[in-house]
Write a structure and sequence with these properties.
This protein is of the alpha/beta class. The protein has a single domain, classed as Rossmann fold. Helix content is 51%, strand content 20%. It is built from 11 helices and 7 strands. The protein has a 7-stranded mixed sheet with strand order 3-2-1-4-5-7-6, with helices on both faces. The chain is globular, with a radius of gyration of 17 Å.
Length: 245
């Protein structure tokens, strides 16, 4: 089996998620803005600044979706840096390329591939960022080890993985309100605007049931990272994890 066939097989193995994320792109950005009360933009900006710490020369926006993290990194970079966005959804990548072109941003390339079979050489990147998609690789995923192995493979020694992701607040009260908000408001608004019930049911449930900061830190350390730092946002409903290879 050739490399192309292997990549297509990897994409096909994730068909349920692929179908969901291929159907919702036209209003994907709008829905994200509404359901996060526009906070996702500032969170992504913080993730972009974290990705640029240490002036990395090559940065991968993994599971880039419509490319917002890659574009934020490019706009904020004060040094020469190559930025690559990768996603398995062709429709997402088309929107990403259109957006970056309209903004006149240069130095970004977009690639279609699956995270379990990255089309890059060993130690290709100084930094890998992933914005609110790490959950899709790790929530109830039998392939989580494959994904983390690939991330570690293409990340150079001492390189960093920057994860902006939903999390679990420590406060029982805030956690209960957050889960209610996700399952009632986010699910219904996402479904209403996108017309895709399955995608936003998945979003609400995966966010509500996702790892706590301690659990995700333990997972990252167990699968090969040497240290992990966590910074919470908005009472802990989301945050940034920085894991060092």
């Amino acid at each position: 089996m050739g490399l192309f066939e292997m990549r297509e097989k990897a994409l096909a193995s994730r068909k349920p998620l692929y179908d969901m994320f291929s159907e919702i792109p036209p209003r994907y950005d709008l829905i994200n803005t509404i359901i996060t009360l526009n906070m996702d933009r500032s969170w992504r900006q913080k993730a972009a600044r974290e990705c640029l710490t240490g002036k990395p020369k090559r940065i991968l926006d993994l599971c880039c979706g419509t490319g917002d993290l890659a574009m934020s990194i490019t706009r904020l970079a004060e040094h020469p840096a190559e930025v690559c966005g990768l996603d398995f959804s062709q429709s997402m990548l088309e929107i990403a390329a259109e957006k970056s072109g309209a903004k006149g941003l240069k130095g970004i390339t977009f690639t279609r591939a699956d995270a379990s079979l990255l089309p890059f050489a060993n130690a290709s990147f100084d930094c890998i960022g992933i914005s609110f998609a790490f959950r899709n690789l790790t929530y109830k995923s039998p392939s989580v080890k494959d994904y983390l192995t690939e991330i570690l493979r293409v990340l150079e020694p001492g390189g960093r993985l920057v994860i902006a992701e939903s999390s679990q607040p420590k406060s029982v009260l805030i956690r209960s309100v957050y889960h209610f908000y996700m399952r009632q408001w986010v699910f219904r608004i996402g479904w209403l605007i996108s017309g895709n019930r399955q995608a936003y049911r998945y979003l609400a449930e995966s966010c509500s049931r996702y790892y706590s900061p301690d659990e995700l830190t333990e997972l990252l350390l167990k699968l090969g990272f040497t240290q992990v730092r966590y910074t919470p946002f908005f009472f802990g409903v989301a945050g940034i994890f920085v894991a060092t290879r």
